[in-house]
Design brief:
The complex is a heterodimer of chains A (319) and B (535).
Chain A lengths: L8 H5 L42 H18 L1 H4 L31 H36 L2 H16 L2 H12 L3 H28 L2 H8 L4 H13 L3 H21 L11 H8 L8 H28 L5
Helix pairs in contact in A: 2-4, 2-12, 4-5, 4-7, 4-10, 4-12, 5-7, 6-7, 7-9, 7-10, 8-9, 10-11, 10-12, 11-12
Chain B lengths: L1 E12 L4 E12 L3 E6 L5 H8 L8 E3 L2 E4 L2 E2 L5 H7 L4 E4 L3 H4 L6 H11 L8 H11 L5 H5 L8 H12 L6 E5 L7 H16 L3 E6 L2 H5 L4 E6 L2 E7 H6 L4 H8 L14 E3 L2 E3 L15 E10 L2 E11 L4 E5 L6 H9 L6 E6 L2 E2 L5 H4 L6 E4 L13 H6 L10 H10 L16 H13 L5 E5 L7 H18 L2 E6 L2 H7 L2 E6 L2 E7 H6 L4 H9 L8
Parallel strand pairs in B: 3-9, 3-10, 7-8, 8-9, 16-21, 16-22, 19-20, 20-21
Antiparallel strand pairs in B: 1-2, 1-4, 1-5, 5-6, 10-11, 12-13, 14-15, 14-17, 17-18, 22-23
Helix pairs in contact in B: 4-5, 4-7, 5-7, 7-8, 8-20, 15-16, 16-17
């Protein structure tokens, strides 16, 4: 955004026939050669618009997500221990210098399991969101661009999908397909689909009625060209925000399904299934429950914080 | 005693780094009408707001003298200002729909002023509200007082706003562009109403960009530019014998019957302003390039265009005038082939156009191009200037650069603007970009839908001059849609007057405007404020 985008206060209060005429007159135009008679001192240079500071919480959230991303992509960097290596002699050992997060009921290192679990949560969440966003965009844009007889059934489909409670619908899908990481992706993707499809459909309506699409018609563009060149790029704006916040929801759903035994199966170190396995030992070994739970929570909170920031930026409340 | 006496008023917005008002001196005597005219950004509105303590947050106001009715306003706190507003000065703003609370009835809005200043006891308020509405010429005050702002027409809303402004019977009325959003006939009514208030002894401070509006009502005029008063004096003197070149340019830039065939952006040197002639145009009276026959269009069941016919010859300009809702823009859409008429036909270049399927129309689209009121709306928000202008050109993107530079030069824009985003450009520059893009496919017809309505008068002058030059060079035909009769008279050869979707009168522009036959045309022309000037 440039300096000239921002209207100085004097302009805003000037109730001219609204629309255009921003203040930043750029030389050469609009300024008739004037007499210098009234001694007009040069206007003060406009200062650069104030940058809004990033909140400390948002920085922490971003750093945390970076760590989680490293854990997901290269868990070996953060934890040398084998997440699957059982050591019954040291079962349920409290946090120590050797096992920072303690060990679980089979003596497996909790830190290592949490680190290796990031890949499952993040991977499944990202895959589900990708699925939902891509299919949602395609269907939403199709609904938005099509005549009523295509738009109506599609929209009703989105409504039906959205009307189920999220977890219930996901469980329904898995009860049909059976448990496993791939099926969790499918289930969560389907649950999230209407969020994307509806927003994209709405965006498409706005864009296809916009002045610039009409202008493109008068330029004689063929419809496919017009859609690819002017409609599609302009409807994708809200996607990054939706995806970031949706990712948090997807991770919670993944953990929830795993907790219920519908996700990746033990002994895979998925956070939700770790919680399920450890919950019986809560009274003697709080660490085996606390750390997986904490990481689910922190990841979701961080994603939401970053998502909100993106959202404010997208809505133009931030530069 | 003067109502307001200000000397060396300075208003700065330090955060934005803007000096909006730089040393303005102003006095308003009782019963006097003072007008401030200027283009956007001249500081006229900020000045007016400062006079009632509404400069806004983050503003620094200084003055060597600032007396409101003999009291030093520099020491006023928020409470002092509150007591003044409504009681001492009523404020009327441009758009009553924004100024009135959408969730309250018009009556409640006015009653609030009465309550705030304890004008009449509670019991008498309803009656006083009706009395006020009646005084500002609102028919059926009982009905209107119970309605919400959105249920009223623009004219009635503005009247209601004036009623609330005068409710506490202030000796001063500050009107900031009170008629800018209104149709010309409604504008005339509001101006009559303001004049009537003046006749009753209320002083008036009027802010306007429109010299003609000001000339009909003000005793004194201040011309502002960049926060400074450039010229001030009695209205007649300033408008008929301006002393400053800026005032002269401003006056010369106003399009009218007298300015036909000349450039509006005049050269002012040595105290005389000269309008140079525009290059000669040739109108080919052979076969018309656009021919509309019996055009009829409906939105749902509502007929918005009814049996409209006209033709446009190469090199000719046909103006379409009418008030809002008269169907002008729908006619433009029909001619552009963006909408199908329910009856009638548009012929382009001698062959059918409006009835065709889009597939057959597409190859001929380059013949007819459009320029709209708000160019920003018609630009893909992701595109740079260069890309916008290049889009209609054929061939690979890279090879179009030379032609883009040529087109930008033609509309008077520097070639290095190609990499910029239209959002960062001024209104005039944006409209030039729109014109450059419209010219790219070498059209034979340009449909201009209110192309200069959002522009300041000097920028409007430049854009109109540019259109005239293009027409002379290319022999382009122009369909020029506007609510501004002066602009239409300046640019058009023939004119079509529309009302409620029908053509009430058409013919040569001088004939129609000087010897109107239809009542509506007469009414329209009668409502236009005339600029008494020798220029």
């Amino acid at each position: 955004m440039t300096v000239s985008d921002r209207e100085p206060a004097s302009e805003r209060s000037d109730r001219e026939p609204a629309v255009a005429v921003p203040p930043a007159r750029l030389a050469a135009d609009d300024e008739p050669g004037l007499d210098p008679v009234p001694a007009v001192p040069p206007a003060a240079p406009r200062t650069v618009p104030r940058r809004y500071g990033v909140r400390p919480g948002q920085v922490v959230a971003l750093l945390f997500l970076a760590v989680i991303a490293v854990a997901a992509l290269a868990p070996g960097l953060l934890s040398g221990a084998d997440p699957l290596a059982a050591d019954p002699l040291h079962a349920l050992a409290p946090p120590s210098a050797q096992h920072w997060f303690g060990t679980d009921h089979l003596g497996r290192d909790v830190l290592s399991r949490v680190v290796h679990g990031a890949g499952y949560s993040l991977g499944i969440g990202a895959a589900a969101i990708l699925f939902a966003a891509v299919l949602g965009t395609v269907l939403g844009a199709l609904a938005g661009l099509s005549p009523r007889y295509v738009d109506e059934p599609l929209s009703r489909l989105f409504d039906v999908l959205a009307s189920f409670p999220e977890l219930l619908l996901a469980m329904l899908v898995i009860s049909v397909t059976g448990p496993g990481a791939g099926n969790v992706i499918l289930a969560i993707g389907l649950v999230q689909l209407p969020n994307y499809a509806r927003v994209i459909r709405g965006q498409t309506f706005v864009v296809r009625r916009s002045g610039y699409v009409e202008q493109a018609v008068t330029l004689g563009l063929r419809r496919p060209t017009l859609v690819v060149r002017h409609v599609l790029p302009n409807i994708l704006g809200p996607l990054p925000v939706l995806a970031t916040i949706g990712m948090g929801t997807a991770i919670i759903a993944t953990s929830g399904l795993s907790f219920l035994g519908m996700g990746p199966q033990p002994p895979d170190p998925e956070w939700g299934s770790m919680l399920a396995e450890a919950r019986n030992y809560l009274r003697v070994a709080w660490w085996s429950v606390l750390f997986p739970g904490l990481f689910v929570t922190l990841t979701v909170v961080s994603l939401t914080a970053v998502g909100r920031r993106l959202q404010r930026r997208f809505e133009g409340r931030l530069p | 005693m003067s109502l307001i006496e200000v000397e060396d008023l300075r208003v700065t917005f330090p955060k934005a780094g803007v000096e909006a008002v730089r040393g303005v001196s102003l006095s308003i005597a009782e019963g006097e009408c003072v007008a401030i005219v200027g283009e956007s950004g001249s500081g006229k509105s900020v000045t007016a707001r400062t006079l009632v303590g509404l400069t806004g947050q983050g503003a620094t106001v200084t003055a060597s003298r600032f007396d409101v009715r003999g009291r030093d306003a520099r020491r006023f706190g928020p409470r002092d200002w509150r007591r003044l507003r409504g009681r001492f000065a009523g404020l009327v703003l441009q758009d009553a729909l924004v100024s009135l609370d959408p969730l309250r009835t018009v009556g409640a809005e006015i009653a609030e002023v009465l309550a705030a200043h304890d004008v009449v006891p509670r019991a008498g308020r309803t009656e006083k509200v009706l009395e006020l509405l009646d005084a500002v010429g609102v028919p059926e005050p009982e009905l209107r007082a119970a309605q919400y702002p959105h249920q009223l027409s623009g004219g009635l809303r503005q009247r209601a706003l004036i009623a609330s402004a005068i409710a506490a019977d202030p000796p001063l009325l500050i009107a900031d562009e009170p008629t800018t959003a209104l149709d010309v006939t409604v504008q005339a009514q509001i101006l009559r109403l303001l004049a009537a208030r003046r006749a009753e002894g209320t002083a008036l401070l009027m802010i306007s960009h429109d010299l003609a509006v000001v000339s009909s009502i003000a005793d004194r005029v201040l011309v502002m530019k960049d926060g400074v008063v450039v010229e001030e004096g009695p209205t007649n003197r300033v408008l008929s014998a301006p002393e400053r070149d800026y005032t002269r340019l401003l006056l010369a830039a106003v399009p009218s019957a007298a300015s036909r065939g000349t450039r509006l952006s005049a050269i002012a040197t040595g105290g005389v302003s000269l309008r140079a002639p525009l290059p000669e145009r040739r109108i080919d009276h052979g076969s018309p390039v656009v021919e509309a026959r019996g055009l009829t269009a409906e939105y749902g069941r509502r007929r918005v265009v009814d049996d409209v016919s006209f033709e446009v010859h190469p090199g000719e300009t046909v103006g379409i005038v009418g008030e809002s809702g008269s169907g002008k823009t729908t006619v433009a859409r029909l001619v552009m082939g963006l909408m199908k008429p329910v009856a009638g036909q548009v012929w382009l270049d001698g062959s059918p156009w409006s009835g065709l399927p889009e597939r057959e129309r597409r190859p001929r689209r380059s013949v007819i191009q459009v320029i709209s009121q708000n160019p920003l709306d018609s630009f893909d928000p992701r595109y740079t200037v260069g890309r916008l202008v290049a889009e209609p050109l054929g061939g690979p993107w890279k090879s179009r650069a030379a032609r883009v530079a040529e087109l930008l030069e033609r509309v008077g824009l520097p070639a290095d603007l190609a990499g910029r985003h239209p959002r960062g450009l001024s209104g005039g520059q944006r409209q030039r970009v729109a014109i450059a893009r419209a010219l790219a496919p070498r059209p034979r017809v340009l449909v201009c839908d209110e192309p200069v309505s959002a522009l300041d008068v000097s920028v409007q002058a430049q854009v109109l001059d540019l259109l005239g030059e293009i027409q002379a060079a290319d022999g382009t035909a122009l369909i020029f849609i506007s609510h501004d009769l002066g602009v239409v008279h300046h640019i058009s050869d023939r004119v079509v007057v529309m009302r409620e979707g029908r053509v009430v009168e058409d013919g040569h522009v001088d004939e129609v405007f000087f010897l109107p036959k239809h009542e509506y045309t007469k009414e329209l022309l009668g409502a236009v404020p005339k600029l008494a000037t020798t220029l």
